[in-house]
Amino acid sequence: MVTTSPTNGAGFDASVLAELREITTRYPQARSALLPMLHLVQSVEGRVTSRGIEACADILGISAAEVSGVATFYTMYKRRPVGEYHVGVCTNTLCAVMGGDEIFERLKDHLDVGNDETTDDGRITLEHLECNAACDYAPVMMVNWEFMDNQTPESATRLVDDLREGKEVRSTRGPRICTWREAERVLAGFPDDRADEGPAAGPASLLGLQIARENGWTAPRQRP
Ligand code: FES
Q1: Same domain for 60 and 97?
Q2: Is 144 in the pocket of ligand 1 (CB under 6 A)?
Q3: Considering the domain boundaries, does residue 62 fall inside one?
Q4: Which of 21, 42, 192, 194 is least surrounded, with the fewest CB atoms within 10 Å of its CB?
């Protein structure tokens, strides 16, 4: 049930409430919109706040506890303020052995923060990530969910220094790095103009396909 009570939103601007409601119209069942709605809350608040939870609950006609249950289950939803750039280092098995652990330790020392902590200037939040399904480019980092492939401790420290100095930084796959809040807005389903910057897949990901084509291999046909 979608409600439009004037008490909705616990103090959000009317434009934010309108966008939260707009998201619900994309789905046959309004409550399916909760995940992108929480991303929109993060784009406005810098994290999932209590008033964001209440606004989502009011609009969807569900309880704040149900919204909280979702917001605390998925690691992409943050209850503490995130810096301008969320820097993730994959420390899952392949990336770890290829140098991810070393990168993460180097960045912790360099930035003087621990896991899930933000630098004093509010620019960088550091977090170790699980597998990003980009193992063919290990060790992999992500900045605001854009890939930074084949990293080293040296390239990683250069990267965070450039971000802190306000230089333009691009993903190793092409797109410009935007702020975390801007990225959260995209995840809420309000695209920016960066989607076509860079290729859809790089050579390492396409190598298996190339080998199969060179050898004339095809996938087995499915039985009817
Ligand atoms: S283990 Fe790091 S991307 Fe898969």
Answers
A1: no
A2: no
A3: yes
A4: 192
> Each residue of 47-56: pLDDT tens digit?
999 999 999 9
- Residue 45 placed within a domain: yes
CA 42 / ligand 1 centre spacing (Å): 25
Tens of pLDDT, residue by residue over 189-217, are 998 888 788 777 788 888 999 999 999 99
Structure tokens at 121: 């200037």
Domain residues for the domain of 35 are 6-73
- For 85, phi and psi rounded to 5 degrees? -130, 125
Residues 173 and 93 in one domain: yes
Q: Is 151 in the pocket of ligand 1 (CB under 6 A)?
A: no
Best mutation site among 89, 95, 150 for ligand 1, i.e. most ligand atoms within 8 A of its Cβ? 95
CATH number of the structural domain spanning residue 36: 1.10.10
pLDDT > 70 fraction of the chain, expressed in percent and rounded = 96
Count: domains in the chain: 2
Q: What was the pLDDT predicted at 96?
A: 96
**Strand order through the sheet with 124-129:** 117-118, 124-129, 85-90, 141-143, 146-148
